Amino acid sequence: MSLNTLEEIATYIVSNGKGILAADESNPTCGKRFDSIGVESTEDNRRDYREMLFRSSGMKDNIGGVILFDETIRQVAKDGTPLVDLITNQGALPGIKVDKGLQPIGDLGETVTVGLDGLDERLKEYVSMGAKFTKWRAVIKIGDGMPTDECIDANMKALADYAKLVQDNGMVPMVEPEVLMDGNHSIDDCYKASDKSLKSLFDHLKNNGVNIKGTILKPNMVTSGSDCSSQAGIDEVARKTLDCLLANVPAELPGITFLSGGQSDILATAHLDAMNKIGGFQWKLSFSYGRALQAAALKAWMGKSENIFISQDALSHRAKMNKLASLGQWDQELEDV
Ligand code: 5MM
């Protein structure tokens, strides 16, 4: 695979309906996922789990990139093969989460994502380890008086500073402004917060001279809050998400890869498919799911080597379903076979 420019890397990741496997859970998050299946979160167990995912047959043709956590990019499989090589052997590009998590700002419980200190040196090391793209996640909450303009501006400025540095180091930045689903807000509240965040993000990217053609956006879909009593249906989520993206995202951006944000795996697929069936945009509209790709595989695995094949089948199935959704070719009936 010879990909020489940022544009080529970004375009490759989302080519032919491919999407991204988000496997960059930090150790505390991985601990929570493993708790749910009664598996201890040791370094070896995390390695075994991810090795199993990366060796799944469904990675090929369906997954164009994998986001890793710092620990994982350094790990080798049981037979000594670097996990990064397992990924490239499947035709996918290795990516790396480079933010350092959330810090409180203001007195409402909002956060700003940190990690710019020392980032340039860390990026240089990741390049030498084979990373082709990076990820930084900003978190925006909806609630009483939230999101504040200060929170949106601080987070989107940090995303733009990060993106510029990443491109200067020859990698493609994924920018992830996640408006959380948590809360009882309406889908219109989600639209407003997402619209404001995206507007601010693209203003900051432009001011920083970030090459949009060498950038991938990882946004939330526009949905009802998870505790809202009236949940918007698939068509409304698809239409409002598209309207929000069309209002804010330049057509020259090569790929938009959604996060799943706590949606069930099938709903995340159905929403993506509905948007691609509607069409009317120039970007590739694809997926960068963590939970919505891994949930069934994690449940099937239970930390037991005898479950490896059924777990890999579960991941392969979801990867294939989401590829079909990225092409607008998914159907609910395909889930029942
Ligand atoms: C895979 O989870 C990622 C890392 O989360 P932490 O830093 O909190 O451990 C997360 O950023 C993820 O990439 C996105 O939220 C998308 O994952 P979901 O599960 O929302 O599709």
Regions with little confidence, pLDDT below 50 for 5+ residues = none
Overall radius of gyration = 19 Å
What is the ordering of alpha helices and beta strands? HEHHEHHEEEHEHEHEHEHEHH
Bound molecules: 2-O-methyl-1,6-di-O-phosphono-D-mannitol
Beginning-to-end CA distance, first to last residue: 34 Å
CATH architecture descriptor text: Alpha-Beta Barrel
The largest sheet has its strands arranged as: 1-2-3-6-7-8-9-10
What would the keywords be for this entry?
alpha/beta; TIM Barrel; single chain; 337 residues; two-stranded antiparallel sheet
Characterize the structure shown.
This protein has 337 residues and is α/β, with parallel strands linked by helices. The protein has one domain (6-336): Aldolase class I (TIM Barrel, Alpha-Beta Barrel). It has helices at 6-13, 27-35, 43-54, 70-73, 83-89, 119-128, 149-168, 187-207, 234-248, 265-278, 291-301, 308-326, and strands spanning 19-22, 63-68, 93-97, 102-105, 110-113, 133-140, 172-179, 216-217, 255-258, 284-289. It is globular, with a radius of gyration of 19 Å. It starts with 5 loop residues before the first helix and ends in an 11-residue tail after the last helix. The mean pLDDT is 98. It binds 2-O-methyl-1,6-di-O-phosphono-D-mannitol.
